Amino acid sequence: MDNNTNMPQTPVSQQDDLNIKDIIDCCWRVRWWMAGAAILSLILAFCYVRSQTPTYQRSTWIMLNKPDGTNADLSLLAEFTGKTVTKKIDNEIFILKSPTLLSKVVTDLGLNTRYYHYAMPIADRLRVGRFLMATKLVEYYMNNPVEMSVEQNGLYPDAMHPTSIYVKFKNIDGEKFVIRKFLVNGQSFKAAAKTYSYGESIIMDAFNLVISKTAIDDLIDGDSYVCTWNTPMATANAFESKLTATANGKGAAQTDVVTLSIVDALPRRAEDILNALVLKTNAESREYKGLSMQSTMDFIDQRLAAISSDLGAAEQNYKNYQANRVVVNLESQSQLELTSDMQYKTQLTEVRMQIQILNMVSGIMKESGPGDYRVIPANIGISDTGLHTIIANYNSLVAERNMMVANSSETNPRVLSMNSQLDDAKQSINMAIASLQKVYALREKELGTIVGASQKKMADIPQQQYELQQLSRKVDIIEPLYLLLQQKREEAQIALCSQTDNFRVIEPAFGPKLPVSPNSKMIYLLALIIGLALPVLTVWARNFFKHKVETKKDVEDRVNASVLAVLPKNSVEDGYALLAAGARDTSSEAFRMLRSNIQYLPGVRVIQVTSSSPGEGKSYVAGNLAASIAHTGKKVVIVGMDIRKPTLHKIFTKVQQKPAASIVAYLIGKITSVDDMIQPSGTGFNLDVIVAGAVPPNPSELLSQGTLESLINELRSRYDYVIIDSAPYLPVTDSALINPYVDATLYVVRADYTELKMLEEVNVAFTNPNQPVKNPYIVLNGLDLESNKYKYGYGVGYGYGYGKNGYGYGYGYGYGYGEDALKEDSEK
Fold it and tell me: Which runs of consecutive H residues, i.e. helices, occur in 514-585?
């Protein structure tokens, strides 16, 4: 018979790839576990969701009113160079997230003091069990039934003032409370152990604390409430971590729209924070820009005050000079003075000329004596009409007299009458001339005085003009500057009043009604998936991390040999018990199956039964297999070739352990006949037993002698089946020395006992090209068919010694043999 006729030609590999059918089968086996785990997971997920405080996201869209400081050229340069251009929008985003700015919002909204109420995660309205199940903190906002105020004592330095306060108290009848927990700056602080009334001041060292009720009376008797107080900056830092500001658009350099978002447990508070933050940012921006304009206006006001004083002084000096000098308009007054002077001079000249004319007429009158009547020149420029009329009348009388004298004599009565008239006329003329001379003399004097005064004024005009120009120049210099400052102040005032907000609100704070955390749908879905997958993953993990053989598949996946039979776990307390003939239990039926499979193996009559290590049940399998074959009427002998640790006498209790009639005795030559070793099994069937005998000091050397082959051939000729119970195959060479003389090898692997890594060594031994195991078949022993519970453990040791002789040896895979170190294990 050829060796290894049932061995596959291709090596067996570890079956790591998952098979869909195996997964479906696994799921079907644990379907009820999956259903229960899914329901339990959903219940736990529901409790988790209800115990969590939901958080909501609110956003606002705002747009920067001014350009962001970039232009197309810089953007194009950035695309080519790969360098980022600093944008004003980035600066504004940085300002939006400023903790200082946010702390002002916190102060305005009063967010540094927060209020909580312990509620039940489920069915909070129920009053039953609240003292045990009220574990969820629910925060108030704008509807808090209590209010806590902290007044710091100014006598203490700032370092001693609190930065955070935590007060947990229990409400009593809505009128009093008892402090349960008091933390100051994170440290436990013992308050007075008494009952406080709402509104009563709790006096501490560096601060006073007052908890009072609000108009919203919603206090539940016996419930616990929490009040916390933090500095505005600490609260702002907490909110800042939840605040995000991002620029929207295809490119950050091409947009000035910002999305401002915050996540908070209270959506209304989140909206108030965003809206107030935008308003505060605009107000701060206006204030910052207004500081420059206000400084400009203050400077202008200061300059206006000084210049106004100077301008007022200059104008007053100018006015005083005009008043003192009687100067209204110097140019007009100079022209008027010049005109008046000329007029006065003309009048003076006229007066003097009239005086000269009068003197001339007076001289003419003096030259004509009595009776001398001459014509007086009348058209010589006499301006007085009365004198002119008298002279004209006189000249008419003279002309008439002269005509009468020419026609008559001077003694003509008429002539004499006319002479009398002429004398009277001459006297009237002299009197008129004398009177006019006096009038003209006074007029000449008066005009002379006026002309002299006018000449003096004309002489003073250049000096007045110079002085007035000096005063006017000073006014002209100060007045434009004053007007300019007035104009600039008005412009600054207009610019201050016409400032626009830094950000324009495109969309006020908005957000979805559903919370962003916890995501209940996702949690329920994950819980369902985990619940369904947990049993399957548990089975997979147990299979992945298991280190011992548990199923037939574990053997088939790792060893290139057929599994000839699967033997159930023996329910008999004595693991070496021989199964009764005709029994109908699962173990008996399994051995019958093993017997049938062996009978179908062609040419197999000598069978070696071995294993990897002691305790896997090879002697149990060998004894019961031999008995099962013998039950069919076949003549069978079982040979105890495990001469290191013989155990057949424990299975066949009626067989005597005779050292002189044993395998060892035959191998060392004490007996030479096979008949001397054979003993009846005592089972009543055609089954004989050959015991191993005493443990020799040199088992391998004894088995290496040629008598072993002749012994097996002799037994082959006498019996239908020869069953050899040999030592474990891997730790010692005894079985390898026996194996060439057998027809098949039954390799016993015990479930929940044999290490999986040992199967890899078994497979190597089966396929060893130098000395392969002859026709190996696997027998899986000890499979628990009634329970899925498997044992786990590592580091199991096995003892295997020679007994009193004290000989021993070690094997490098954790199995040792020696009387001093290891205990004797029973094979089951």
Answer: 520-545, 552-556
